[in-house]
Structure formats: structure tokens, C-alpha cells
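Justification of resources, computational component.

The compute hours requested in this renewal are based largely on the per-chain cost of generating structure records like the one below. Each record pairs the submitted sequence with a full C-alpha cell output. That output is archived, and it is also reused by downstream analysis tasks.
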Amino acid sequence: MKVTDRWFNRLVVAAVSIGFLALIAAGFAATQAILQNQDQTRWVNHTYQVERAISRFRVLEERLEAARRGYLLRNEHGLSATFTDTANEIGPALSEIRRLVADNPRQQENVAFLTELSRQHMRTLARSVALVSAGRRAEAVETFNHDSSLPMIRAIREGADQMLAEEDRLLTVRNAEQRASLLRFFIILSASGALLLVVAGGSIWIIIRYTNDLTSSRDALTALNANLEGAVRERTADLQRANDEIQRFAYIVSHDLRSPLVNVMGFTAELEAASKRLSAMMDRVEARAPDIVDAEDRLAAREDLPEAIGFIRTSTQKMDRLINAILRLSREGRRPITPEQLDMDGLMAAVVGTLRHRIDELGIEVTIAPSLPGLTSDRLAVEQVMANIVENAIKYLQPGRPGRIEIRGQREGARATFEIADNGRGIDPKDHERIFDLFRRSGQQDQPGEGIGLAHTRALAYRLGGTINVESELGKGATFRINLPIHFAGDQGAMA
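The structure output for this chain reads:
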């Protein structure tokens, strides 16, 4: 079922992704079609502009011819002014046509032909008008009857018609391209709409399906939570009872072990006293009757027996320290947590103050960063945690290196992290967790201790709702990080 759901989810994601990519492609294609249609529209408008410019030029040529004829017939000054004004407009009209058809080589040739015809026509007409203006009207009429103005005007008309025909051809092509572009645009738009409906329908179906699944999961989770809360309460109570039993068991075992241990320690003291008397007796016997005592008796009385008694005493003392540590842990586990407002600046200064004689003796530089974040927690537990770490930093200095300990802290949301960093011997990375185990130590064992301090420290941190870890390398010092809640939320003794 899981495999099917996984592949289905992948298929859904792929389908939705493809759908949206297709929509993006359709949008891009529609944009291209719109831009192409705009370009086609611009060319169609351009064709109309060219046709209007050609028609205007032809009208000007016709008006110019008509003005000349009217001036020849009636010799009126107004007709002469019309001729002059029209002649002045022909040049700009040809320039406008040349500008508009600059992209069309064929039309450029036609414009060049019309320009040359227009110049010849203008010279012919201007000669007739000049004769009339000079009072030689008869000569002007004779010139008009024999000049080539009529063939020229017909040639101009034909050239203009030829250019208009070319523009009509271009207009037909461009209109067809515009229609095709519009058709493509509507096809793309329709396809995009259909695709959008498919993607929207698929998305709605997926959302409905997953909404139903989420609703079912929420209902199932609500039912599970209802059962889980009771199970958690029951399990917490069981853990608390188990923890209390463990505490009582540790206390009872430690107490029961202490009674025979006291006896062993007492009899060891008696044996030690008897050994001294036996050694004194051996001295007297050797002085009075040396032949009675052999070498083995002398060795047993003076070396073997005191050595055995010394080994027993050392072992019982170590066992006594272990039992005391177990009792201390048991008492700490039963001690109720009493949260109060803590000024961590003052608390850390007090911790360092209790160890000041040893710090000064070893010449250690201790730095406490200002403005440590305050806590609402158990003062005794926090002091024990911090003191154990600082004391370890003092104990495990690197020989030949001036000791340095830095204490700093910062707030992180609802929690605070305190760091105690030193430049001592350091801890092998493989022992970073091992040092927090009960009765376990790391590195060279040249300092007194039973491997209880860091285990006790971690247990206290857990009870306060915090954690403790270390970062270190051999020869490079160690940094212990204690993370605690700003406000104590409840005893975590059962979980510790």
C-alpha cells in the first residue's frame, strides 16, 4: 500500500507539474502569437500609409497639370499660386513615399522611376507657366500643344498604379498572415483554456482526495490522542513508581552494604593492630631465639600480612566512597525540585569563588561573560551542575600550559545555553558519551574520583528539563554545553 501511495503521489506531482509547465508554454505561445499579430497589424497599417502617400502624390501631379492648363487658358494669378504651392508639395510627398518603402527594393525602384518622371514633368510644366507669366501666352500654348506632358502624366499614373498594385499584393499577403496569426492565437487560447480546465479539475480532485484523507487521518489521530493521553499518564505513573522503586532499592542496597562494610573495616583495623603486635613479637623472638624463626615466617609476618591488610583497607575505602556516592545520588533523586529566580551572573561568581583557592594555587585564568541569561530553576541543582563542570576543568589541566576557563551563555527562545570552555587535556571523541556513564572515566587516571560526577551532572540536568554535551579533542581543551529551560516546567526525574 505504501509503494502504491508513493508512486501515486509521484504521478500526481508529475501530472500537476506537466500541466503547469504546459500552461506556461501555452502562455508563452499566446504571447508570441499576440506579438506576431501586432507586428502583422503594423505592416497592414504600413501598407495603407504607403497607398495613401502614393495616392496623394498622384493627386498632386494631377492638380499640377490642371493648374498649368487653367493658367494657360485664363492667365489668373490664383492659378499660378496654386501651381507653385502644388509644385512645392510634390518633393515632400516623394520623400515620404521613399521613407515608407525603404524596406522594399521593388518599390524603391518604382519610386526612383516616378521621381525622375516627376522632375521631367515639372520642368515641362514650369516652362509653359514661365512663358505665360512673361506675357508670351501664344508661345506657351504652342509649347503646350507640342510638349510631352500628356505622355509623362500617363506614365506617372501608370507608375503610381503599379506601386499601388504592389501594395495591394502585399496587403493581401499581410491580411492573410494576420488572419492566420489570429487563428493560431485563438487555437492556442482554446487549448490553454482546455488545459487550464484539466489542470484545475485535476487539482480540485487531488485536493478533495487529500482533504478526505487528512480528515480521516485527523479523526484517527484524535482517537489515538484520546487513548494516548491516558496511556501517557499511566506510563508516566509507572515510570515514576519504577523510579521511586529504584531510588529506594539504591538506598536499601547501599545501606545494607554499609553494615558488612563497616564490619570489614573494623576487623581490618583489628588485623592491622594484631599485625603490629605480631611483628613486635617476631622481633623479640628473633632477638632471644633466632633459630626458631625461619625466612618464610619472617616474610609472612613482616611483608605479606601487612600488604594484604593494606590492600583490604584500600578496597574497603574505595567501596565506602562508591556507596556514599550511590547514597548521594539516591538522596538527590528523591529531593524535590524547588524553582526560584536565579541571577546566573551571581551564581557563577559564587561557584568560582568556592574554588578560588585551587584556581589561585594553579594560576588559572577564569573569565565569566557579562549578562548571563537568568533562570527560574532549582538553585542547588544548577550550582551542582556548574560546579562539577568547572571543578573538572580545574582538575584536568594540560601540564605545561597556563590554565584558562571561559564561562559564557546566551538565550535561545525559551531556553538558555551555558558554555564552560577550557584549554586542558581534552577528551577523545570516542569517549564523549562514555564520560557521562556511571563509574566510567576517560584518559589518564591521575586524579582522584570514582566516575560519578558527570553522571550525576547529566542526571541533574535531565531533572531540570535540560541537556548536557561536550565538544572536545585530545590536547585542545573541552567545551561543555548545558542547555536549560528559562522557566522550569516540571520535574523530569522519572525520565532521568
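The radius of gyration is 56 Å. Strands lie at 339-342, 365-368, 375-378, 404-412, 415-422, 467-472, 478-485.
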